[in-house]
Each structure stands twice: as C-alpha cells, then as structure tokens.
Specification:
Elements (H helix, E strand, L loop, with lengths): L17 H8 L3 H8 L7 H14 L5 H8 L4 E7 L4 H16 L3 E7 L4 H13 L4 E5 L9 E2 L4 E4 L5 E2 L3 E4 L5 H12 L5 E5 L5 H16 L8 E2 L4 H12 L6 E4 L2 H13 L9 E6 L12 E4 L2 H17 L6 E3 L6 E2 L10 H5 L7 H4 L1
Parallel strand pairs: 1-2, 1-3, 3-5, 4-6, 5-7, 7-13, 8-9, 8-10, 10-11, 11-12
Antiparallel strand pairs: 12-14
Helix pairs in contact: 1-2, 1-3, 2-3, 5-11, 7-8, 9-10
Length: about 375
C-alpha cells in the first residue's frame, strides 16, 4: 500500500464520505442516509453493518447537508434560568441526554431572571439558529408573557400568555409534592404543620405552598403563615428561629431538600430532635438526603425520566407534526419515607425539651 492511502485508496487525510461508508458496507448511499437519519425500513442487520463501517472509517454525518435534505437541523433550543440549583440543573442535564439519545443536539440560552423580555430574547436567539423546537425551563415568574412560537414547544411548568399551537405541557401538576408531603404528615397524626417555602417569584414555590395549603384545608386544619426561604441550606438554618418560637408546631414541610437539611442542623444545634420534637419532609430527593442524620423523608423527583418522556413527545411532534397540544401527566411523585418523620409526641413531652441556644440565631 502506498504511503498516505487507506486500504480503499482514499487519502488518509481526507474526511470519510457517505459513499465510502456505502462502499465498505456493500449498501447503497440511500441506505447509509436512512441509517444516519434514524429512518425506518432498514433491517437491524443492515443498520449494524452501516454503523460498523462508519465507525471503522471515522465517518461523521455533515449536519448542514443533512439539514438541507431533511428540512430539519436536528437541534432543540432550550431556554433555562442561569442557576446551579439542583432541580433546574438536573432537569437541564436530563433534557440534553434525552435529546442526544434521540439523535438531536441542544443549544442552550440562559436567562438570569428579572424581566420577561429576557425569555423573549432567548427564544429569538434560538429561532435565529434554526432550531427545530424550543424547550422552556424558566421556573421564575417574570410577569405576563406575550410570546407566539410557531415551531413545536415543550414547557416545563406554567407559562401564562404563551401562544404555541404545537405545544407539549409538562410539570403542570407541581402542587402535588406539597400535597403528598403534607398528607404524609397528617396521616402520621400531625395537626400543626408549618411550611418553609421557596422564594415567592418561583413557580415551584407557589405551587408547593398551594399543595401544602390544600391538604391542610382538606383535613380541616389550621393554615399558618408560611416562612420564606431562598432554596439554600443557609436559609433553612435561619428559618429555624421562627419554628423554634412556635411551640405548637410539630412538623414542617420544606419546599426543597437543601433548606430541609439546613433546618435540621439548626434544630440539632438548638437541642431539638428530629423527628421526636419536629418531623421534617423535603422535596427533590437530593443526593445527600439519604445520608443525613437522621435521613430525610422527601418527595423524589426523577428528572431523568421527566425529561426523557417529555423530550420523546417533543421529538415525535417535530417528526410527525399534529398541530395539537399535548399534556404530559407525570402523576403523583413518589414519597420516600426515611427517619425524619414520625408521629407527634405529646405537647407535655415537647414542652420539656430544652430551649434553643444562641447558635441557632447567630448563623
């Protein structure tokens, strides 16, 4: 073999083409195109032969050329708030992985929150890139939106004012974590159940508080004023001051696990035991929740499954347009019962516990 040539006579420095793959696999160029575009009507044996030849030659489909022939870019645009919080970042990872498994790439436009125009500008940037669809994961209430989108749109949560004929709606029952968590505490016998909420501008904070409130009202129980946090463990620690001053409270539903872990640490520092003196339930099933002392009872959120099912619907809408709106019903989230919840102790026994030291106030 002459230097600088492959076994097929192609220069070693040249990029493999689909014709090279077809020649090596012993199939037509059309078959290679069908395999690379993940089209039907290709037998498993042929598909495997083409993919093996493509791998051997180092062949990579030309995205621009494929877009010209198919009319699609095979790219999904995602609008997401710029945050490292567990929920939004986990959902974004799930969206990217699910899109990639479906043969699509992802372009992300981050917003920093603060005004509705930021969402509109992010959508415009993505549409200018020629994306096939938009996924909106903007959990903050920016006020009324007046956005019209004529390509398929996937929304995680509520987006009032959005006009999108080809829309997939996911995560719109986000009051259920609060309801399921509170029902668990009620069924344990708690009646004075408080709520540590997330920041008021977040849809999840609104909805989880609504779920807590509806469960309490349904059970005929008193609904106290919620305490507001900011999703961080530090804000959970600070919230303990109000709860420690509330002698009637026996349980608390916390809007996310990070705040719940901060709260439990403050209760420990104040000489209060969880769950003997205060039962605590969180939301998310944060990776460290099972390893806290005591381990945290929580509402699990399977972000990978949520993303996979929703992206599946979006890809189906891209490839088989229906001009209808779909609602992805996730059902009730699972309750993971661990050590931080138990039936309430008597008021007399709780009154005998030591008061909170200054450490709970100073952090």
């Amino acid at each position: 073999m002459a230097s600088g040539e492959t076994t097929r006579g192609r220069p070693a420095t040249a990029r493999a083409a689909s014709t090279d793959v077809a020649r090596l696999a012993g199939v037509s160029q059309k078959t290679v195109s069908r395999v690379m575009n993940n089209e039907p009507y290709v037998t498993p044996e042929l598909r495997e032969r083409v993919l093996r030849a493509a791998q051997q030659l180092g062949y990579r489909p030309n995205g621009a050329a494929r877009a010209l022939t198919s009319g699609r870019s095979r790219r999904i645009g995602v609008v997401s708030i710029g945050t490292q919080l567990y929920g939004p970042s986990s959902l974004l990872v799930g969206v990217e992985q699910s899109a990639r498994e479906a043969g699509y790439s992802v372009s992300v436009a981050f917003t920093t929150g603060g005004h509705a125009a930021g969402i509109e500008q992010a959508i415009d940037r993505l549409i200018e890139q020629g994306v096939d669809a938009i996924a909106l994961d903007e959990p903050v209430d920016e006020g009324p939106l007046t956005i019209s989108i004529d390509i398929p749109v996937l929304t995680f949560g509520r987006f009032p004012g959005l006009i999108a004929p080809r829309r997939i709606r996911s995560g719109e029952r986000s009051d259920r974590p609060g309801y399921v968590a509170t029902r668990h505490l009620i069924e344990l016998g708690h009646q004075q159940i408080r709520h540590l909420a997330g920041p008021t501008r977040w849809w999840a904070a609104h909805d989880r508080a609504r779920g807590w409130r509806s469960a309490m009202i349904e059970a005929g129980l008193e609904v106290a004023e919620a305490i507001e946090g900011d999703w961080s463990a530090a804000s959970g620690y600070r919230a303990a001051e109000a709860l420690l001053a509330d002698s009637a409270a026996t349980a608390v539903f916390v809007a996310n696990d990070e705040m719940a872990l901060g709260l439990m640490r403050a209760l420990h520092d104040a000489g209060r035991r969880v769950p003997d003196d205060m039962s605590v339930v969180g939301v998310d099933d944060f990776p460290t929740a099972a390893y806290a002392v005591p381990s945290l009872t929580t509402i699990a959120q399977d972000f990978a499954t949520i993303a996979r099912e929703a992206i599946g619907l979006l890809v189906h809408e891209i490839e088989q347009p229906s001009s209808t709106e779909h609602v992805h019903d996730e059902g009730d989230p699972p309750l993971v019962v661990r050590e931080s919840t138990a039936p309430p102790r008597s008021a007399a026994r709780r009154a005998g516990r030591p008061g909170r030291p200054s450490a709970a106030r100073s952090r």
